[in-house]
Amino acid sequence: MDIFLAAIEVLARWDVLLALLVGSIGGVAIGAIPGVGPAVAIAILLPATFSMDPIVGLTVLLGIYGSSMYGGSIPAILINTPGTAVNALTTYDGFPMTLRSEGRRALSLAYSASFFGGIFSVICLIALSPVLAKVAPMFGAREIFLAALLGVILVITAHKGQMLIAAALTGFGIFLSTVGLEPVKYTRRFTFDQSWLASGINLIVVVLGLFALSQAFLLLTMDDEKIRTPRARGSLLQGFRELARHPRVASIAASFGVVMGMVPGVGEFTAQFLSYTSARRLSKTPEAFGHGSSEGLIASEAANNAVPAAAMIPLLALGIPGEALTAMMLSVFYVHNVVPGPGLFQTQMDFVVALYLALLILNVLVVVFLLVSTGWLVKLTQIPNRFLGMCVLMLSFVGVYSIRNSAVDCCIAAVFGLFGYALKRLNMPIVPIILGMVLGNIMEVKLRAAMNRVKVPWDFIDRPIAFLLFCVIVMILASTLWRTIRDWRTPDRRSPARKASARFIRRIAGRQTRHFDDRLKIQRRRRTYDHMGS
Amino acid sequence: MSLETDLRARTRGAGQILFVAAFLGLSVILLSQIAAQTAWIEKARSFAAQPRFWPAVALGTMVVSLALHLWQMTRRRPRREDWQEARRWLEPVEYAGWFMAYVFLVPWIGFLPMSLALACGLSWRLGYRSVRWMALAAAFALGTVLLFKGMLGVKIPGAVLYEALPDGWRGFALQYL
What we know:
Chain A is mainly α. Helix content of chain A is 75%, strand content 1%.
């Protein structure tokens, strides 16, 4: 109770409350604009938050992170374009409802499910805090190294169908984190005798280049689309009543969100996918999924909104970010000399609980804001792409230049912007680079510290948590290898014309076989007849 | 098509071979420089304390995974559509030029004048030439400057041009614009 009161004291400041309001409203608005997304907004705002108190800066960023998915459901439902990447599944059931003139019902369901997911995960976190406070100190250097390694492996294996590219990009991120002076012997690594590379490559500059500038370039080179928002009828409150009729779907979805949010490198997509498929399996009307099912909408929205709060667990308890947005938030901690990790739960529990409470209040603020401003937010979807690109380009300058007023940083950001643009055009993932940079740095420091106490290899995993993490890593690697071998097919390198001709020959051959089969049957029948007749 | 395959991201085919080959080439060049660009310490306490260890892990991962990706690609010879896609990657170079010009001119001309110039100039270039869009672009530039420099106090230095302003205005411009 004392911690709870102390946390309320941390929050009871005008600047924190203002940050909550700005973060939540700003996050909803950013989510509602397709093509911006929370990663771009957080990357741009990151340097501005460095001059704020840690709780104020983190509240703004958390506000954007937690509320953007609410806003992202608006274009997903009304115009079949997800506002943020994690609202992709919302389009499956939301848009068909809009086509049936049930847009407001769909929006209301999305808001209520998101609210349930958000509140559920914060309550879970508050309930889990005492356990985390006990478990977190058991994590020493080798456990944190293994947890970071697990994060890296999960980031790679989560990109099914693109695992090799994800591995290469993670390796690139780790490589970027090693450039500059190494911290023990102060030798130079890959600086090519350039003084501007001696201090290394700044994470924020890379983040701004890969997320903000590349998005600006993408928007600037796009065509503008004419967007027609359909008319929607009904009350925005009806979804709350409807949600009460599906408590099982909502609870299971939110639980998936909490569990998947806690696992580094997994995130919203897996949570949504698992909750959606389980909801479909448990539903009495599975055929309605994908055609405007209220259960499907609840499953996807409750799951993705339960993730942000849960994603704070590995960040706060171990100092390990699970995805790009929490990786960006980690830099806010470092700037203010607040070291997230086991010590935070022992020495600054009030700060941790204050963050959870901020998330709780945020969800209430967002729902109230959405109930009164949905009509206005819909208009944001109509901002032309290229004009939006100009806005993002200008804001990216503020983000990069305000770090240390360096034109070199801006050049590096522009180069990463062009690199990110090519990655986005190719539909390759960007997140592995950022996580590689952050986790690579953590792994280097922790492995070096851990190896000082290790005499034989077995010593590395002689503690229970280290052994458990090691077993999980081995299991994931073994299952991934097994799946890869099972699904392996030799690549078909023939030209499209050759493939088409081979397909045609197969089809003809099939006909011939059937033709001969038929002939054989006829002959056999005749023979039988003959035999009978003889 | 199942939900899983529907949601799974697929790498675009056009341009992939050029990107992978270039990225692999860069990785191999960097790996070949590892001896010259990193130090090897004879009396290091463990392999993890070697400054060369993590760059080797990172570059090794890059080379192996990109080589495997290249090996299992169905098409390993660039076609016309690959070069067309590569040309599209150069399209944003123009906007990167606008961005860098903005970066170099802000310390001379000032954050507010340059923001107004960039917003209106780029909007004009993009085809938003009506008074309405120009006004919106100018309002956005003004709002950005007032929010970030005026209210949040982000570190963007005052311009050389502001030194020419009268005394009363100079301090205000250097602080807030």
